[in-house]
């Protein structure tokens, strides 16, 4: 890892903003602090999706939990905003196990798209990239070792299979999340 000012790191830890930090192949990556829009969409998505994740036996929705490289937890990990994982795969430091769904809320100048190869190599089955202002969602599905983007149908609905959801943008703009027997707008 490159040398970093320890006082600066201690200040980040004290303020609790180091929870977004990541290490990519031994290099510390400090993403921009989330905007208020970023935090709002993360909170609303988390609240709305948690019951849907938990209806699957043994699964839970967690926030800012690192996806770890099993070969070295300290030198290679990414921290999505939201993830859905089987509880048995969660360890103190994060998760090494397969992740059903990871969600990255985009921020100006962030590197979320650069994380796709790492997530694919760790077996993240479904990945969402969410634009907080427009609520547009890119849904990526893992097939083998590569991601393929889910294409919206003619009505503008994208199927997100990890939680059996249909996503669309409605007036507001708001993200409409529909599941068998219900729907919510975020």
Query: How confident overall, as mean pLDDT?
Result: 90
Beta content comes to 35-45%
Number of DSSP strand runs: 16
Distance separating the two termini: 39 Å
Major β-sheet annotation: 6 strands, mixed
Structural class: alpha+beta
Global Rg: 16 Å
Q: Helices and strands, in N-to-C order?
A: HEEHEEEEEEEHEEEEEEE
Low-pLDDT windows of residues: none
Can you put this structure into words, describing what you see?
- The strands form five sheets. A six-stranded mixed beta sheet has the order 3-6-9-10-11-12. A four-stranded antiparallel beta sheet has the order 13-14-15-16, with no helix packed on it. It has a two-stranded antiparallel ribbon with strand order 1-2.
- The chain has helices at 6-15, 36-54, 116-121; strands at 22-24, 27-29, 59-63, 67-68, 77-78, 82-86, 90-91, 94-95, 99-105, 126-130, 137-143, 146-149, 158-160, 165-170, 174-179, 182-185.
- The chain has three helices and 16 strands.
- A hairpin with a 6-residue loop joins strand 10 (126-130) and strand 11.
- The protein has 186 residues and is of the alpha+beta class.
- The longest helix is centred in the N-terminal third of the chain and has 19 residues, at 36-54.
- The protein is globular.
- Helix content is 19%, strand content 35%.
Short description:
The protein is α+β, with helices and mostly antiparallel strands.
Q: What are the SSEs and their pairings?
A:
Elements: H1 6-15, E1 22-24, E2 27-29, H2 36-54, E3 59-63, E4 67-68, E5 77-78, E6 82-86, E7 90-91, E8 94-95, E9 99-105, H3 116-121, E10 126-130, E11 137-143, E12 146-149, E13 158-160, E14 165-170, E15 174-179, E16 182-185
Parallel strand pairs: 9-10
Antiparallel strand pairs: 1-2, 3-6, 4-5, 6-9, 7-8, 10-11, 11-12, 13-14, 14-15, 15-16
């Amino acid at each position: 890892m490159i040398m970093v000012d320890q006082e600066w790191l201690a200040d980040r830890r004290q303020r609790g903003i180091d929870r977004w930090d990541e290490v990519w192949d031994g290099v510390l990556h400090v993403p921009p602090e989330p905007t208020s829009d970023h935090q709002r969409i993360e909170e609303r998505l988390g609240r709305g999706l948690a019951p849907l994740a938990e209806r699957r036996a043994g699964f839970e929705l967690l926030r800012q939990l690192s996806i770890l490289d099993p070969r070295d937890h300290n030198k290679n990990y990414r921290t999505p905003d939201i993830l859905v994982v089987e509880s048995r795969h969660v360890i103190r430091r994060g998760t090494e196990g397969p992740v059903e769904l990871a969600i990255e809320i985009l921020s100006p100048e962030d590197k979320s798209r650069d994380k796709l190869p790492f997530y694919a190599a760790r077996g993240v089955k479904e990945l969402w990239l969410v634009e907080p202002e427009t609520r547009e969602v890119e849904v990526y599905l893992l097939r083998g070792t590569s991601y393929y983007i889910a294409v919206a149908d003619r009505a503008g609905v994208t199927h997100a299979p990890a939680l059996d959801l249909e996503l669309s943008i409605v007036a507001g703009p708001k993200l409409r999340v529909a599941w068998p027997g219900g729907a919510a707008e975020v």
